[in-house]
Amino acid sequence: MSEESDMERTEPASPKRLEKSREDGQVPRSPELSTFAVLITAGGGLWLLGGHLAAQLSELMREGMKLPRTVGFDSGVLGERLLDQSLHALVALAPYLFLMFVTALIAPMLLSGWLFSWKSVTPDFNRINPLKGLARIFSLHGLVELIKALLKAALIGAIGAWTIWRHKEAALSLIDAPFVASAAHMAELVIISFLAIAGALALVAAVDVPFRLWDHHRKLKMTKEEVRQENKETEGDPHVKARIRAQQRAMARKRMMSEIPTADVIVTNPTHYSVALKYEDGKMRAPRVVAKGAHILALKIREAGREHQVPLLEAPPLARALYHHTELGDEVPQKLYNAVAEVLAYVYQLRRYRKSSESGEYAGKAPQFPDDLPVPAELDPGL
To answer: Which of 86, 193, 209, 304 is the most buried (most CB within 10 A)?
Structure first.
């Protein structure tokens, strides 16, 4: 049961999967949105440029009708005249056609932005396979597309029929009306029909766009196993990462242990924590933590300290505060300056006392370790 659940596509597509599908040219597209955008642009373009186009085309027609009778039967002249008129008509229509071209180019980007993928234009003979083509036509997706096309045609046809039926008397009355009045009335009917059909296409696009987005993300859904495999590829195998982290910790511990011989003092709990401190006058602003550890690692730090004759001092509150509020290489917190200063002062006095005793000089009285170090209560987790 668990294996079946892992193989079901229940997980949303990951960013990597979405990016790959985009590289392959697989992005949501809505033909209905493009159709609506082109239709609106066509209507708006005629509204803005209609007067200018009508004037230019009318002038072309008048010029075309001015044909002398002497050249009316010369096929060569007629061909040249037709070519010249066609070029002039194309120039007149160029702004309108350019506007339509730009809209047809930009409309698909409204849903998924600019995209150019070589994979989309790479020849793929599977796309022209008749058997696969028939399978696509008679598939569930093909059936859904057929139903959508029929519903769209029925909706637009019904709106067109309703518009004609509602204005049939006005349309029939145009036969007996003067040309100027009938042309104006016909233009009004065309605008009404255009707005009705545009509204229908807007409704179709409003339904189609969410469906295309949902369908695109549905097709890209992943199984739990695919998600796990992708995580392994992007972030690495968890077992390998665990081994790497373990090796990194071991190397860091090795570097830390190599710093213990240079420490000035090791402050202990005495059994739970060990923190080694080092201070170089003129080179450091404040004492630094060169080693720290708890339990077994604390024991190893103390053993290394004894081996290299680094002073070990039992100061549980200070050891706990240093362990919990510093990291390797950190300076001691400012609130612990006084306590650490007393510890280092004791260590330096003890070092001088031992050196004098070993040389046979009078060393005086042995220094006494401070009993009550000034460790703020908020820094001591043991309280």
So the answer is: 304
Residue 268: what are its φ and ψ, rounded to 5°?
-120, 170
| Topology at the third CATH level for domain 259-379 | name from scop (3.40.1690)
Length of the chain equals 383
pTM for this entry: 0.49
Do the bridges between strand 265-268 and strand 273-278 make them parallel or antiparallel, or are there none, so unpaired? antiparallel
Query: Which residues of the chain are in CATH 3.40.1690.10 domains?
Result: 259-379
21, 222 in Cβ contact below 8 A? no
Residues 298, 301, 307, 313: is their CA dihedral positive or negative? negative
Distance of alpha carbon 67 from alpha carbon 78, whole angstroms: 9
What tokens appear for 211 in the block?
């469906």
Which residues in 132-159 are b (16+ Cβ under 10 Å) and which e? Answer: eeeeeeeeeeeeeeeebeeebeeeeeeb
Task: Round to the nearest angstrom and report the end-to-end CA distance of the chain.
Answer: 52
The answer to whether the CB of 24 falls within 8 A of the CB of 119 is: yes
Beta bridge partners of 288: 278, 331
Render 354-370 in DSSP notation, one character per residue.
Answer: HHHHHHTS---SPP---
